[in-house]
Amino acid sequence: MPIADLTAPRGLSEEHKAALVKDLTDLIIKSEKGADAPGYGYPAWTFVHEAEGFAIAGQVCPAGKAPLEFGKK
After folding, report:
1. Strand 59-61 versus strand 54-56 pairing type
2. pLDDT of residue 16 exceeding 80
3. How far apart are CA 19 and CA 14, in angstroms?
4. Is the dihedral angle over the CA atoms 58, 59, 62, 64 positive or is it negative?
5. How far apart are CA 66 and CA 55, in angstroms?
6. Interatomic CA distance for residues 70 and 64, integer angstroms
7. How many CB atoms are closer than 10 A to CB 24?
8. pLDDT beyond 80 at 37
9. H/E/C letters for each residue in the chain?
10. In terms of Cα–Cα distance, which of 3, 2, 8, 1 is closest to 48?
11. Residue pair 53/8 in contact by the 8 Å Cβ criterion
C-alpha cells in the first residue's frame, strides 16, 4: 500500500487540497504501473499536513504568502 505525505501551507481550500491529493494519488498509481480502474487507488493513502510557516531556499516565507508568490518583486 503506497503512503504519501503532502505538506502544504495552512489555509488552502478543501477543494484545492482534494485536487492535490487526487493528483498525487494518480501519480503514485501511475509510477507503480497501477490500473485506471475505479477504486484502484483506494489503498493509496495520503496524509495532509498543513504548515503554519515554511522556508524556501533558506528564507522564511511570510505567513499567508503563497510559495509561488514568494520571491517575486
Report:
1. antiparallel
2. yes
3. 9
4. negative
5. 11
6. 10
7. 17
8. no
9. CCEEEEEEECCCCHHHHHHHHHHHHHHHHHHCCCCCCCCCCCCCEEEEEEECCEEECCEEECCCCCCCCCCCC
10. 8
11. no
Residue with cell 502544504: 8
Distance, in Å, from the CA atom of 49 to the CA atom of 9, rounded to the nearest integer, reads 8
Longest alpha-carbon distance in the chain: 45
With cut-offs at 50, 70 and 90, classify the pLDDT of residue 18: very high
Q: Residue 62, class by beta-carbon neighbours within 10 Å (0-12 exposed, 13-18 middle, 19+ buried)? A: exposed
Q: Are 19 and 44 in contact (CB under 8 A)?
A: no
Q: What is the CA radius of gyration of the chain?
A: 15
CA distance 49 to 55: 15
